[in-house]
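BUG: 3D viewer hangs when loading the predicted structure for this chain

Environment: internal workstation, default settings.
Expected: structure renders.
Actual: progress bar stalls at 90%.

Input used:
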Amino acid sequence: MELGLKGNVALVSAGSKGLGYGVARALAADGARVSICSRDAANVEAAVARLREETGADVIGSACDVTKPEQIEAWVAAAAAWGPVHALLVNAGGPPGGLALDMTDAQWQAAFELTLLSAVRMIRAAVPRMTEGGSILTITSSSVREPIERLGLSTVMRSGVAGLVKTLADELAPQQIRVNNLIPGRMDTERVAQLDEAAAQRTGKSIEDIRSASIAKIPLRRLGTTDDFGAAGAFLLSPAAAYITGATLRVDGGMMRSV
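Structure tokens produced before the viewer hung:
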């Protein structure tokens, strides 16, 4: 299936590894020009080199802290030198785990700026450059449908992002800009490994037992891969999904039980 991405300009935040990298690789493999960002300049440089080698596509990168609006603007402007922006993946690292009422005001504020306000800022920077229409895709979490134990900060802020998606799908439709949300299940990423390690330390169980228990709850009986996620992300960001907006797609192997 041709996604129609050849020559399109795509922005992928938190794209140096994990789920963001998976989407960036899928976009580049289909011919998009891709600009990634991440806070760590060395990680960005390494990821850009790897993406160019793997796909042969035009790929650039910027060191960008998405809690800093001036850095977001610089990242988007650099990619817009290619021409109109066609696609934006909104992604950022997750807030720390813990009981919701144990979190301080400073932790709540930091989570708001990292997860929700950064999404607003990235979209606000990209939309004026989407002069030919385009697609915006956010990554949230299964917690927006089924809250996850000890991830209250993430649940609240990512639920806000899900609300933002539905709001902007209506507001941006007249400009032919689509806005959707992608929910990962249990994926084989560094973030999930960190959560498994924290659960093992908290419960006294081994990491292997924690992971086995998670996999047992997934109908497909395996963790998802970055390729699984990247393919879904590239589709929703592409012209092939031209009549999909305001939607949430789960890439979870059937894990979530809600309808």
